[in-house]
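We now fix the convention by which a protein and its fold are recorded. The integers have meaning only within a learned vocabulary of local backbone shapes. A complete example follows; check for yourself that the lines match position by position.
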Amino acid sequence: MDGRIALIEAGGTKFIVGVGDTSRRIHARTRIDTTRPEETIPAAIDWLRRQGSDYSAVGIASFGPLDLDPTSSGWGHITRTTKRHWSDADVAGPFGRAFDCPVAIDTDVNGAALAEWLWGAGQDTNASLYLTVGTGIGGGAVVGGRLIHGVGHPEMGHIRMPRHPADGGFAGICPFHGDCLEGLASGPAITARWGASLSELPSGHEGHRIIAWYLAQAAATFQAILEPARIILGGGVMSAPGLLDRVRTEAAAASGGYFAGKAEEIIVAPALGDDAGLLGALALTRIGGNLHRIPASRA
């Protein structure tokens, strides 16, 4: 896929919209607040039109959940989401029709996973997994150059967790599962327990130990399922000082020496920095099977 590519990092708070190319250059970008679909999506299209109309593809890395079944009439739509006004919103269709070019869409975390595998911390591995720990928790995995999908996309943040012995009194905040990984270790779960973000808690606060323990249990679970060469931990919660090292220490204990590799080599930080979202959208267009034309019937 040559030429200019329209890039959209569609988040629950903001859309980052950019113009890139296959050399990974980002030529321009802007931020648009995520309000309602009928406001945010046309604003993104209008900005892209002002940059030109000669796009060879559109890449969209979006919050979800998403319908990613190319045979479905709802392909490219957000499905049931807690983001007000966005359930059943068609994200892919308006961009494909506006620029008459194929569209690649997947979750934002799958986009990040693919970009990190192509160009970042997962480069030169057969299998790597990206887990973002922030307002929510989500994960994506690349095995043999392909993102893992099943009936839908993975929802790694909703795996069930053992309970830390010092955390039994917290019910968890996930509206669907209560004390799944997201319900216990996401940013809002941390604030719900202790009234502050992990970075704001004193260094000796038990929250650091508890959250590292949960993330380490998740890492050990993903090792047992996929044995990835890299588990890349990103997202705002991971900016807490010392958290990555704590997770490595706890993960080594949780694995009991059973899995291959050392925790400090397997569990790593992302490498793509502030461009990760747009590069995730770009990465999705690099895999030919991801690109789809929008049927005229959806106009």
Remarks:
- The chain has a mean pLDDT of 93.
- The longest strand covers residues 26-33.
